[in-house]
Design brief:
Low-confidence stretches: 1-7
Strand content: under 5%
Order of helices and strands: HHHHHHHHHHHHH
Shape: flat
Structural class: mainly alpha
Number of strands: 0
């Protein structure tokens, strides 16, 4: 007769209830005072920065919006939307909007295409550092300095016309800054000469972050040349492209110093953009209401175009 030994599991002592625990009360409630204190502390640390940004950015912008609804008299009276209807009735502001749209397209497309091409061509090679230095160097200059250089090139007796005459191309010599839309186009090219530098830097950083394994796999699959660039390299530069387009877009919309030094918006205010028109209306024509309306419209265009572009590019596909 075999006897079975019954093994009993030792009973663990029941944990004693803590004094701050009560039956039926959720356990997380005791953490709420601590969380509230942490949030108040975080709000206290953020409050100076929020007040600083509000005082320097939001308050002046709100004041500008308020001023845009009043006329230009010393004792201003409420003018409603009269200052905004100038964009439909004033030929100068209509032309300014046209020039601004040209600047948006040119200052985004040209630096992006040129910067990407130069970055790809100078990504490797013994002469790449020298080439990159020559391209990036204008970016270190101010807009006024760039305008002085291009003024030497584009004036009627400037370097461009002298070079054309030296090669017997007198018929192509012209006043580059004297007629619209040619003056706007050459200023966009001058802006591209400066803005392409930052595009080259950003695209070079993007090219260096591409994993070599993807390029080797593409080569094994038979992709080479243009197909390799279009289907393998370019998709991996999407994030960098978003940054380049965003910075170029904002820079083109607010461009002022280059235009002011080269043409001052002339001749006859034909080469003005909205940034130049804002200065002209506010400080030279002494129309603060119209200048405030131009500033509001320009800010709205910058915010709207930036938001639409970033929303389209950064939203995952299929959502």
């Amino acid at each position: 007769m075999s006897s079975s030994v019954e093994q009993r599991r030792p009973l663990s002592p029941r944990p004693s209830a803590r004094p701050d625990q009560h039956p039926g009360r959720p356990a997380d409630r005791r953490h709420r005072p601590r969380q509230a204190g942490s949030r108040l502390a975080g709000a206290g640390f953020l409050a100076p920065a929020v007040l600083f940004v509000g005082a320097l950015l939001l308050l002046p912008f709100a004041t500008t919006i308020h001023r845009s609804f009043f006329d230009d008299r010393r004792v201003s009276g409420f003018a409603g939307l009269d200052n905004y209807t100038l964009f439909l009735n004033d030929p100068t502001l209509v032309r300014s909007v046209q020039n601004t749209l040209m600047w948006v397209v040119g200052s985004v497309a040209l630096p992006m295409v040129l910067g990407l091409a130069i970055a790809v061509l100078t990504h490797s090679g013994g002469w790449s550092r020298v080439a990159r230095l020559l391209v990036v160097l204008p970016y270190a200059l101010s807009g006024s300095a760039v305008a002085v250089v291009w003024n030497f090139v584009l004036t009627t007796d400037g370097a461009a016309n002298q070079a054309l005459r030296a090669f017997g191309l007198d018929s192509f010599a012209q006043g580059w800054l004297l007629e619209w839309p040619g003056n706007t186009l050459v200023m966009i090219i001058a802006n591209t000469w400066q803005a392409a530098g930052v595009a080259v830097i950003l695209f070079l950083v993007g090219l260096q972050t591409i994993p070599p394994e993807t390029l080797e796999a593409a080569a094994l699959d038979g992709a080479a040349g243009w197909r390799k660039f279009w289907y393998v390299v370019l998709p991996q530069l999407r994030t960098v492209s978003v940054i380049v387009v965003g910075t170029s877009l904002v820079g083109g919309l607010k461009s002022f110093d280059l235009i002011w030094v080269l043409t001052q918006g002339g001749p006859g205010r034909q080469s003005e953009t909205l940034a130049v028109s804002m200065y002209q209306e506010t400080f030279l024509a002494l129309h603060p209401g119209a200048g405030a309306a131009v500033a509001v419209v320009l800010t709205a265009i910058v915010l709207l175009t930036s938001w639409l572009y970033l929303r389209r590019q950064l939203t995952p596909k299929g959502t």
